[in-house]
Amino acid sequence: MEPEQVVEELLALPIMSVEEARDHAPAKSGFYVWWCEEGAVPTDVPAPPHPVAAFRLLHAHVSPPPREAPKPLVETHTLRTVRTVAHFSPHPDDELIGAPATLMALRDADWRVVNVACSLGRPAQHARREAEVRDAATRTGFETRILRPPVAMSGGGDAAAARRRLLEAVERELDDLRAQIVVSPSPHDRHHAHELVGAAVRDTLAGLGNDSPRWWMWGIWGELPLPTLATAFDASRIEQILAALAAYRGELRRNDYRRFVKARAEMNASLGPELLFGFGSEAPKEVRFVELLTEAARVDGRWLLGRARWLDPSAPLADPSDTAVGTWLDRPTEAGRFGAPGSQGRVEAGPGELGAPLDEEERSRLWDLTLHEDSVFNQRHALFLIAEAMLAVTYATALGAGENLVAGVISAMGLLLTAAWLYVSARHGDKVQRVQERAKAALPDYRDVAESTSSPASRWLRIPSRAVTGTVVPHGPLMSPNRESRWTTWSAV
Q1: Are 169 and 118 spatial neighbours (Cβ–Cβ below 8 Å)?
Q2: 27, 167, 197, 286 — which has fewest CB within 10 A?
Q3: Are residues 63 and 199 in the same domain?
């Protein structure tokens, strides 16, 4: 039997447990146990590309190796596990734009490459983009998974909900795949969806501690400031990439990313060696195309930068360097700080000014200040209402007793209280408004709640409360006993 036929029959058989394999071992129906042990596999039979979680059976035409004496199974045979790389794509096509040459090199080195498509674009695009990603999978040989339902990451969507879904999905997929390498966009790739996926991968891997797989990051919209891994490839590989990318016909009509992929690879062939190994390093003349990634490893609660090297697909992992990069990975994202491209519309502000970027601690302080100012403002409203109510009761009592002079004094006090309230309310109201505007710019959840009153049904809720509490002030001028008391309306707005 030809080796190709043997492998074909091997892959058609189910995975068996150790007990099932032991029971089946005695040449039953012409089969025997094929042990996946280094050196024991026939040299003319390539290893199967998927996981060997237990023993597999091979057809009897391949004779078992002779043994002098049987030995315990666990002592003589080890299992060969298939190495897995998990790639998280914010959109279909990112697996062929972010780091396609690297994924294909690992695939050719018998790595199992699993591409997880986190979204399918906008709802109207779902059917087309799913068809395109499946077409691309047939061209690349990558195993493809699509999150169900796809995560909604379009601009203006609920970023907090998308983040929660991504964290759950990344944790679930990694638990299932047991990948040794995770590839994703950098959490600073400028595109909001790319940054969401990169941040979800970062936080999930951080939670796994020293057991986390190695993390390789690519950049499309944002330049990688710390590349550590270079994949060299030739013209035949770039043609494979561009042919697979052609499956995304709809996206290429909008923007032909094939130009970017090829031009970036040529540029990296020139700049990559100096970015990795130091300025002045020589760029190999025979290398036409290069792909750059940043590697990070989670070690003892810290993110360590990978060592600068050329990718060896057969042995792609190496001990990390001693350089900690947690401050870069954990800093606020560019999209979160400055907005997506085209949405800024203002000059970057200085520290303390509206629109200045805030880190996590500053956002927490801003939220506390917003709550404090709102609380103080509302408490002053309540105190003013109590004061007015007390003056009204005293004024009515004085009138009932015929004490017009006392009633006049109380009326004057009411007018002074209203004037003081107008002044204090105007100053404090301006401060509260500025704090709220800053909070809406920096805190998306607060902005959503604040802007929810813009609907026609709730438009009346936007009337400042001081316009209500400071409008009607009971007072009465000095009156003679025969003059009738009255209420005069004063507006506080």
Answers
A1: yes
A2: 286
A3: no
